[in-house]
Amino acid sequence: MDEVQLRSEPAAAQAAAPARDPEEAQRALARVQDLLAKQHRVEALVHREAAPAEDKKALVENLVHRQHLNELKAILDRLHPADVAYILEALPRDDRMTVWECVRAERDGEILLEVSDAVRETLIASMDREELVEAVETLETDEIAALADDLPADVVEEVKQGLTNEERAQLRAAMSYPEDSVGARMDFDLVSIRDDVTLEVVLRYLRRFDALPDHTDQVFVVDRDDVLKGALPLDRLLVNEPDTKVADVMKADILTLSPLDDIDEAAQAFERYDLVSAPVVDANGRLIGRLTVDEVVDVIREQSEERDLANAGLREEEDLFSSVWNSAKNRWLWLAINMGTAFFASRVISAFEGTIERVVALAALMPIVAGIAGNSGNQTLTLLVRSIALGQVTGANARRLVLKEIAVAVANGVVWGGVAAVLVFFLYFDSPYALRLGAVMLLAMILNMLVGALVGLAVPLALRALGRDPAIGGSVLLTFSTDSGGFFIFLGLATLFFR
Predict the structure, then answer these.
(1) Cβ-contact 92, 37 below 8 angstroms
(2) Are 158 and 144 in contact (CB under 8 A)?
């Protein structure tokens, strides 16, 4: 078949994954947990019996491992790899290992790809060298590259020996790109054709395969040197006359990616243009791979998880059932910072002890000023972090955005500070300080909301300028600023008003 090139694995390697029910994973988890609980109860019962040790062991084998574990295997065999990964992540370590042993060996590799980094470490640590090699050998080149950093070096080398020369070159290429680049995520499994053949030729060739590469919505058009010329969407292939030339119906103006492009920017492009796949070309314009929507969805999910962890002050992803010691250490950094900021806030309060002793109501009103400003600043922080992640904040519009958020903070301070001032006046109507308390509340709310907005803007913008994640510790720094700043502003104003 001249003028047509296919880069794809045989149909046997492209077997369709089982259909997924969104609730199947949760139902399966409940069944697995129930079976494991029964197993634990039987083991506890056996060990309470007064039988000899050998009889106990045989009884456990008969009652538990032959029955419950077989049921576990039957449940796991029916599940999609992502659902098995979900179950493994939701189980304590001992139960996780029990379930992992029930997974068929030929599915180990695809499940390792689906689990979180923290859980993957525990699973890999439980496998010997031969098991790891067998698991990784079942994967595609780009999938091996995704796992390579977590695998022992000797396992990766042995797997390489079993690859073809082309696959080894692809693996080296994928492993050479930065982790946050398109090249590290691209798929080498694609279909390419020439532009001077007819659609009938293309159709006849594609029908020789039982399945196309996953997420194939277009075939790529290249010249004899593999330089990309355009793409032929499958809908155009199907609705046009068979004797039409590819060159007459292909799309020449398509989005192309470089392997060194930032994967976050590529994900934004997929979202913006509703893409299913996009070609990846080298510096000479040669087609070397493609990026698909399933990888982009993973990127978006990982970004969201990283932002959530960073915003909470967690240094890295944490295994839900990791040891108490490891979990505690993962949370130390920002807890230490938070303790320091809390002590600082306490010193701010102690500096105004005389004012508080004269007007005890100030102690009850302080948290209101800090809390409202903290919530307002968090809204600004969340909005800005999201906008930065979407690439909407640029040098041209940053100043206008800052001014707008400052104006919003002042407006909210006037409105809600006014409401708070009225409520304070009525609450302390019988006090000679009622009017002055209301005025202090109004001014403190305006000023502290302004502080919250400024910090909510400054932290992510400064982190972005330094090349760091804009979400790192933002909420901790914001809380420190609105608490300490709020106490200082409120009590400072009270000192002036109640001389």
Answers:
(1) no
(2) no
- Can you read off the two tokens belonging to residue 399? 């100043």
Measured in degrees and rounded to the nearest 5, phi and psi for residue 254 equal -125, 155
Six-digit token string for 262: 């930032």
Question: In this structure, are strands 277-281 and 218-222 parallel, antiparallel, or unpaired?
Answer: unpaired
Neighbours of 486 (CB within 10 A): 28
Task: For residue 253, give the DSSP letter.
Answer: S
Q: What is the C-alpha radius of gyration for the chain, rounded to an integer number of angstroms?
A: 31
**Residue 90 burial (CB count, 10 A):** 17
The 3-state DSSP class for residue 365 equals helix
158-212 pLDDT, tens per residue? Answer: 999 989 998 898 898 889 999 889 999 999 999 999 999 999 999 998 998 888 9
Is residue 226 a contact partner of residue 286, using CB atoms and an 8 Å limit?
yes
- Does this model's pTM top 0.85? My answer is no
Q: Strands, DSSP E only, in 189-276?
A: 190-193, 218-222, 228-233
Domains plus CATH for the chain? 16-164 (1.25.60), 186-306 (3.10.580.10), 331-497 (1.10.357.20)
